[in-house]
Amino acid sequence: MPTIKEVAKTAGVSVATVSRVLNNNGYVGEDTREKVSQAITELNYKPNAVARSLYKKQSRTIGLIVPDITNPFFPELARAVEDVMNRKGYTVILGNSDEKAEEEKAYLTMMEQKYVDGAILATNTMDNEQVHAFNKPVVAIDRAIDSTVPTVFSDNLSSSREAVRHLKDLGCQVIAHVRGPEHVNNANIRCQGYIDVVGETNWFHNGYIVNGNYSSQEAYQSALTLLKDHPEIDGIFAGNDLMAIGVLKAARDLNIVVPDQLAVIGFDGISLCETTFPELSTMAQPIYQLGETAAEMLIDLIEQKQLTKPYRKYSAQLIQRQSTNKSLIMSAHDDQS
Amino acid sequence: MPTIKEVAKTAGVSVATVSRVLNNNGYVGEDTREKVSQAITELNYKPNAVARSLYKKQSRTIGLIVPDITNPFFPELARAVEDVMNRKGYTVILGNSDEKAEEEKAYLTMMEQKYVDGAILATNTMDNEQVHAFNKPVVAIDRAIDSTVPTVFSDNLSSSREAVRHLKDLGCQVIAHVRGPEHVNNANIRCQGYIDVVGETNWFHNGYIVNGNYSSQEAYQSALTLLKDHPEIDGIFAGNDLMAIGVLKAARDLNIVVPDQLAVIGFDGISLCETTFPELSTMAQPIYQLGETAAEMLIDLIEQKQLTKPYRKYSAQLIQRQSTNKSLIMSAHDDQS
DNA sequence: TTGAAAGCGTTACCAA
DNA sequence: TTGGTAACGCTTTCAA
Question: B89-118: per-residue pLDDT in tens?
């Protein structure tokens, strides 16, 4: 790879001049500019980004840390982030934290050492201390780290309420909840939304809340027990789609027909929902948009622009599919009669 | 962030000495080493990776280019790559190419400018010229770029044959194929595998091959037409799982019962297969392993170790689930009788 | 065993 | 309008 020096030499000018035409600043005579441009194309010169970074203390690189890219929620998010970053000339470093604090910490130090310009953290185990020790712009996705960290997230509370209300509207009498892990903030909020809607009913008790740890497998097991112990349940709100899929499986194994004996709704809006049978209703977060917004905010932060709104709350949208389809329930009843 | 200079100063030694203890090479007296270590921890010093890169012309960073991280095949691959890279102290840059040659080219030049140490290319549109212009170690995944580029891939030919043979063994009489895009190498090979097995049968003609472009949607449409036009079809081999899911949907819409009226098998082994109904049989590639191997090969290449085998072929494994489950077919017939 | 200094490829300041 | 040069933070050679 040719360096700026060689370009200067073949153009017969100094490196300073080459640098000027490269960055398009300072005065450069029209003819010299021409000579330099020629030399550049002739040598197929590409500026060395590392040398630039060293001097400028920035790298046009950002870090994206997710718990696990294998979790279907994150590829779409990552794609959105990468799309806007790429468009703006930034490069994305990807890290899987598995929600482990030490992993996240390791990524952050690595990023500092590499002069990363900022980071997007889609993670639930980062403490404020670490984030502030990381002395660069950060945007949190999906969870507020603390009030000083710009955040983009979904309105988990009202959306989960809406999900449960949807089940109610369908005519469900006894609605259970398969919740996510207790150490995950949004899981707690979604659970709260559920309680908000059904907590005061006369049938409600805590036994209707079981933990599925945001995992399809675990939700399957929990739902199996739950549905066996409580045949009266005719609606389930799962804290995410993965768990809802587990619930669907459990119902099938128990010969419980969804939606007519049991309505099921999930949360997140991952594309998996369309491949299940019956297709899964869900409170769909605008995943791509979340990622896009986070990326745009981070860039503004990096470029020292003022953020108009450091907190960006989106609401999830009810997508009704077969797993809570009333007309489907009706026709099923019709068939039986 | 403190620099090596400050460390040297507080330790009362030269930067050269600090560098020596940092890299653990050259002679350093026991007592000086101690002093330096103290200073390092005292200042919480972290070496500047960019400065290092500039000097060493390497960055402990590799690039991973995939067509689209949103395609369920790639998160697992990416995860595998990231896992081994992370373990070995490398950082992963992620790029989505959308199979566009110019995007890929742009990523490669960016990577050169950043002194990336090598790249893993999971892509189908890279021409040899570009790859060789990129003057760094490269490992291809899923497609041989050319014989000089180390590659890890699945044995698409024999695996697709096995898939079709599986359908035959089940007793399928007329087997169709929903193939992937024509410009994608492995799609052609998988199609060839299908032809190898059924091409000589008396019922076969080209109308039984339709294109689904590796997309669930398009496969759905194609399958709809195919199944309507050819009710005699009782087995479908789809070129990937996504398309198989589309086929499943089409069958459902046409009230064709899988597996007893129509057996369906996919290819890839993405986790989606377990969430469909009926659960999808597939030729499962060892996706994680492919990624792992590619990553390990790349590291060997970077560290100038001799590759024992520059071509690594894995065979996909038949995973039989409900969509081709014979006993299930049997019991279904029993039920009807 | 240690230090001085050159060099990695840029940018930006100061002079000319 | 241009060039010389210090500086970015590190590694390594050479000398001491």
Answer: 999 999 999 989 899 999 999 999 999 999
Q: With a 7 Å cutoff on the CB, does A330 touch strand C?
A: no
How many Cβ atoms sit within 10 Å of the Cβ of residue B7? 25
Question: Would you call B69 and A82 a contact, using CB atoms and an 8 Å cutoff?
Answer: yes
With contact defined as beta carbons under 8 Å apart, do B237 and B175 qualify?
yes
The encoded tokens of residue A62 equal 């950002």
Q: pLDDT per residue over A75-116, tens digit each?
A: 999 999 999 999 999 999 999 999 898 999 999 999 999 999
Q: Which residues contact A261 (CB under 8 A, 6 or more apart)?
A: A234, A251
Question: A129 or B229, which is more confident?
Answer: B229
CA distance B84 to chain A (A): 12
Q: Nearest nt (C1') to B33 (CA)?
A: C1
The answer to whether B91 contacts A68, with C-beta atoms less than 8 Å apart, is no
CA atoms within 13 A on the CB side of B185: 17
Token reading at A192: 């709260």
**pTM (two decimals):** 0.94
Q: Which nucleotide is nearest to B27 (CA to C1')?
A: C1
pLDDT tens for B228-265 read 999 999 999 999 999 999 999 999 999 999 999 999 99
Q: Which run of H or E residues covers position A49?
A: helix A49-56
Whether any strand C atom is under 7 angstroms from the Cβ of B51: the reply reads: yes
The span from the CA of A83 to the CA of B310, in Å, is 33
Interface touch A69/B51, C-beta < 8 Å: no
